[in-house]
Prior knowledge:
Elements: H1 2-24, E1 26-27, E2 42-44, E3 49-53, E4 61-66, H2 68-73, E5 77-79, H3 91-94, H4 109-120, E6 124-125, E7 131-134, E8 140-143, E9 148-151
Antiparallel strand pairs: 1-6, 2-3, 3-4, 4-9, 5-7, 7-8, 8-9
Amino acid sequence: xTEHTSETSDASPASSDESAVAEQLTPVVKPPSPFVWTDxxxxxxxxxxxxxxxxxxYPIAATVVDGAEYLVATARETFTPPADYRFQSWNExxxxxxxxxxxxxxxxxxxxxxxxxxxxxxxxxQPERFTVFYRGSEPLYIEGPDAGIVIIPW
Length: 154
């Protein structure tokens, strides 16, 4: 009996530490599936960047292997992503700077969500650790803590 009480009191500080960490992360009910990359490394942006394309029939995204500084330097604006993976309701993408004149998203919301999910590597993420670099009609660059992904516009 005493042993059980001891375990409960030992677990209590750990529980409070876990809840503090949980408050900092944004939980996602069902995160999108991450991108899968090919083994090929190709040159992009007139040779300024090398990327590894997504392994899809018609790739829309690529992970940046080298040259991220070029993508950052050529950005027009930067944004912090929303507090969840639901870019379908993110104003910047739906009707703001990342939208076409028609009001339609310039970049596929599902693919922007997948890029964040791929960079986050887990079903929770801290939006402030990610930056969306808007480059006009050029591919969007999303940078996470350890890597970056480009997404081509529709």
